[in-house]
Amino acid sequence: MQIETKTIICQNIRDYSNSKRDKDFRVAVFTFNYQGKDEIIIDKIIASGSRLAEKVNPAAANNAAQKRTRERLINNSVAGILAEYCWKKFINTEANEDVVDYTEFNGASAQIDLITLKSDKLIEVRSSFPRNGLEFAICHSVYEFDILGPYSNQVKPGEIQKDFYTRTLFHVPKGKTFMELLKDSNFKVYLTGGATWEMMVDDNFSKNKNLLPEDAVGASELEESTYRVVPFSKALDTIEIYELILNA
């Protein structure tokens, strides 16, 4: 496993010179080599994701009609656990000490979180599978991705749902599946910034958006809902959100 930082400058990319993102966006890139030293890590994450999927929908394993749903649940569960692993690894490696840890498991439908050890601040970890690549997701002037926050009806200025919201992207090109990519020799995970609760309640940064979260593992996984989101053009990049978490 290798960890490096990559800087995306949307204005310098020909296809995205009209991007709404006018600041550099620093991304942490994890590169896994399943054929090398990372087989054990990836296999453990796949096993954990499969167990989580079974807890969410145990009937699907024996029901052909639900096979597709079960496969989707496994993909989402594995992606969520891998995203959580990478954010924890990145933060603690950068800090050279244990700054965050996993939260206690409180049921299969609960969103995956991290918690700061010093101040018990909660960090939500969400992931997506852009088919058109990292630069498209961050820089596109119309179809840019977002930092996903809470349901819009939960946004109340004096009532914090989570302290920080983070994003992870897995580029899954056409013709490939996420589970196939996991066992490649050059599989990349992109940690793509985040937002604070204060940003989620500020209309200058956030907005409401109807969407179906790609990494949903709860009961409403197939239902589109209205979420509060911060578009990448207004989001904190990975180093900025790391520094806030470090000093929380």
Task: Name some characteristics of this structure.
248 residues; single chain; alpha+beta; 6 helices; 25% strand; 10 strands; 29% helix; globular
Overview of this protein structure:
- This protein has 248 residues and is α+β, with helices and mostly antiparallel strands.
- The chain has one domain (2-246).
- The protein has 6 helices and 10 strands, in the order ββααβββαββαβαββα.
- The protein has helices at residues 39-56, 67-95, 134-139, 178-182, 197-200, 238-246, and strands at residues 2-8, 25-32, 100-102, 113-116, 122-128, 146-151, 164-169, 187-196, 207-211, 225-231.
Whole-number average pLDDT?
Answer: 88
Q: Biggest β-sheet, characterized? A: 7 strands, mixed
How far is the first residue's CA from the last residue's CA?
28 Å
Question: What number of domains?
Answer: 1
* Residue windows where pLDDT falls under 50 for at least 5 positions: 60-65
Q: Please identify the structural class as seen in this structure.
A: alpha+beta
Strands ordered across the widest β-sheet? 1-2-8-7-5-4-3
What is the C-alpha radius of gyration, as a whole number of Å? 17 Å
Tally of helical runs: 6
The SSE order reads EEHHEEEHEEHEHEEH
Shape: globular
Determine the strand fraction and express it as a percent band: 25-35%
How much helical structure, as a percent, in the residues? Answer: 25-40%
Please tally the β strands and state the result.
Answer: 10
